[in-house]
Design goal:
By secondary structure, this protein is mainly alpha-helical. It is 57% helix and 5% strand. The protein folds into two domains: 160 residues, no CATH class; 172 residues, no CATH class.
């Protein structure tokens, strides 16, 4: 099937330049989108990709002179490069959405490879109008829109070809899903993929923990989804130990109740005490961390210090603390972030971020966008130069998986003693058990 076999028959034609001004952009965009939606129902994925390539790339190589332009470009030649970019982007996400839903991941990679091959082809017809069309394609493959497509495709490429940052693709996708400048298709695709990757990590972690501690023959079947080695189980035991009356969740609920009628100034002070409460760190470290938080928070929105806290101020204040602990401008890490991870206090930093999300669930998206910014800042560096960030990311993944909403983790003393967990005690006396919160054991 070609575009000519549909009611949208003009897309595969060449349009005479005298007719270009009569083209309605919105109508032509709808024709193109309908074309691909119909194509997906009637042709194989390979044929759809070839048709995409024919429509947007190959057509430019067969133009004989400047009098006729491929219809898909003629639509936008009246100084509408942005319309063209939005159109080709939406077409990509129509295809990606469909193949992701059908688990045809290979074709998402193949679609991106169409553009990769295009970039390597330097022989082009020397025709003025066609040169403009080529420049639009060039600009698209250099754009953030195309880089976002590559981020999605990278997850499905061979693991041997994946950059270290692709272990954390879920957060890059979460940032795409939160960006209101992105199209609905793109945001929805990113949101679904991000959730799927997070859910897979949580499941793989639960299965690994279950069988790694059991000595079962099935242990080799479930690989460690982190890069921390077997030490990850000790870390998990420490994280899970914070249960009972003084769990992070219970303390968060108490904090929310106690701060409802406070002024912003009072709320800032309470928030800092809450974040540092029950810290096991050395007193000097806690004092220094508290001092840095105070210096940064006190000056922030000081003109509103007398205002009674409301949901908006609550959220903005929590988001501000997230910025102070991650990155304030998206171009460099915050000083607190650098100092904590360089001192080997990744778990401390992650717990601070967790405590913020527990009192402000709406801050979760903001946090994930900031995490994506950190990955973007470091991704140009080789893996061996990003050890501190990578260690932070691994601890972050584990901690937020354990405190997720669908799997419950418990620490059991194997000798039958009922006593509070002590990190200084013999960790081998304890085992971590995971269970679906609906009541079904994780399998």
């Amino acid at each position: 099937m070609t575009y000519n076999s549909l009611p949208n028959e003009k897309v595969h034609q060449n349009i005479h330049k005298s007719d270009i001004k009569n083209i309605n952009v919105q109508n032509e965009q709808d024709r193109i989108y309908s074309f691909f939606l119909n194509l997906l129902k009637q042709r194989t994925a390979t044929e759809v990709i070839q048709e995409f390539k024919n429509l947007f790339i190959d057509c430019l190589y067969v133009v004989e002179d400047d009098s006729k332009i491929p219809a898909v470009y003629a639509t936008f030649l009246d100084h509408k490069e942005l319309d063209f970019r939005n159109t080709i982007k939406r077409c990509c996400y129509i295809l990606v959405n469909n193949w992701e839903g059908e688990r045809k991941y290979k074709y998402i990679v193949d679609l991106v490879n169409v553009f990769e091959a295009y970039q390597n082809d330097t022989e082009r017809p020397e025709i003025e109008k066609v040169a403009v069309c080529f420049s639009w394609l060039d600009n698209f493959v250099k754009s953030k829109d195309y880089q976002d497509l590559k981020t999605i495709a990278a997850k499905y490429e061979s693991q041997n070809q994946v950059h270290w940052s692709n272990r954390y693709t879920a957060y890059l996708l979460a940032a795409q899903a939160s960006d209101e400048n992105n199209s609905e298709e793109r945001r929805e695709t990113a949101k679904k993929l991000s959730k799927r990757l997070k859910d897979k990590f949580k499941f793989d972690l639960a299965m690994y923990i279950t069988y790694a501690q059991s000595g079962s023959a099935r242990a080799n079947k479930y690989k460690n989804p982190t890069i921390l080695g077997d030490n990850v189980i000790r870390l998990i035991k420490i994280i899970v130990s914070k249960k009972g009356a003084f769990s992070y969740t219970n303390i968060a609920n108490i904090f929310i109740r106690q701060t409802q009628s406070q002024t912003l100034a009072e709320f800032k002070e309470s928030l800092q005490k809450y974040l540092l409460f029950s810290s096991v760190e050395l007193p000097d470290f806690v004092a220094n961390l508290g001092k840095q938080l105070t210096e940064n928070l006190d000056a922030w929105k000081s003109e509103s210090n007398d205002a009674v806290i409301n949901p908006g101020l609550f959220l903005r204040t929590c988001n501000r603390v997230i910025d102070l602990l991650t990155t304030e401008n998206g171009r460099e890490p915050a000083s607190l972030f650098n100092s904590l991870i360089s001192e080997g206090r990744s778990l401390t930093l992650v717990i601070l971020l967790l405590k913020i999300v527990l009192i402000s669930k709406n801050s979760r998206n903001h946090l994930e966008v900031r995490i994506a910014k950190l990955i973007n800042i470091y991704e140009s560096y080789p893996e061996d130069e990003c050890y501190c960030l990578i260690n932070f990311m691994e601890v972050f993944n584990i901690t937020f998986a354990i405190h997720g909403e669908d799997i419950e983790y418990n620490l059991i003393h194997m000798k039958g003693e009922k006593k509070p967990f002590n990190p200084a005690s013999n960790l081998d006396d304890y085992r971590v058990f995971s269970q679906l919160k609906l009541g079904d054991a994780a399998e």
